[in-house]
Amino acid sequence: METLTQTIEKQAAVGAAKSTKATNFGGYLVGGALAGAFVGIGCLFMYAGVSGMYVHGSDLTGTMMGLVFGIGLVLVVFAGGELATSGMMIMPLAAIRRKVSALRAAWLIIFMLLGNLVGSIAISALISAAQVFKKDSLNYQMLDAVVSGKLHKANSEVFFRAIMCNVMVCLAIWTINRMKNEVAQIIVIAWAITVFVAAGFEHVVANMTSFSLALMNDAGGATVGASALSLLVAGAGNLVGGMIVVGGTYLLAAKMER
């Protein structure tokens, strides 16, 4: 297995590659949109696949929500896409290793978020046009309750839940980059994602889809303003989780190898 230093260098190289790809503005925006759509597919599976358990209060609801939602990150990793939350760990490491400038790293994270939002809105529009969330359906009831719960959380709660969320996402990305077996990588992704979904943590890109679906289907009392504020707070928490808690901790840990 690679040393921690080697893994950091690999992540920094990935960040440099992202910076190079981003010179093609349109192509990179599409890459971000794909990631947003893939996470949106995970949301769709979660709402459509577990709504019966959720509405009827099964004790296994949280675990099942996490297990099915994991398809989103699996698709991002194996089908390809530019996901901002993993970028929140990768791009700061690239900047610290002087592969890109700090300003460039920050701009790329914002660019990825923009692409993710475009993809989330697009997949939400398709899902809504397909009438997946008809009023009074179990899917609608779950969406209504989940979004209402998100929008009624205090900003401090959203922030700290978002930190923990991206700790799990970035640990998944960090770990699979130290592994070679693809089946094992999928298992790690599924377990890590199950933790954050089951615990009710906040993922800014997943919330882009949830709020878009709520706005398009009149669910959860969602408004554009309230949704935007929640996304900003979740995004800030995700950044702290990826950049400082995971990336920063492994930078310190790697010093023991010298």
UniProtKB/TrEMBL annotation:
It comes from the Bacteria. InterPro entries: Aquaporin-like, For/NO2_transpt, For/NO2_transpt_CS. Signal peptide: none annotated. Keywords: Membrane, Transmembrane, Transmembrane helix. The chain crosses the membrane at residues 28-50, 62-84, 105-133, 158-176, 183-206, 226-253. It is a multi-pass membrane protein. GO terms for molecular function: formate transmembrane transporter activity. It is found in: Membrane. GO terms for cellular component: plasma membrane. Its main location: membrane. PANTHER family: FORMATE TRANSPORTER-RELATED (PTHR30520), NITRITE TRANSPORTER NIRC (PTHR30520:SF8). This is Nitrite transporter NirC.
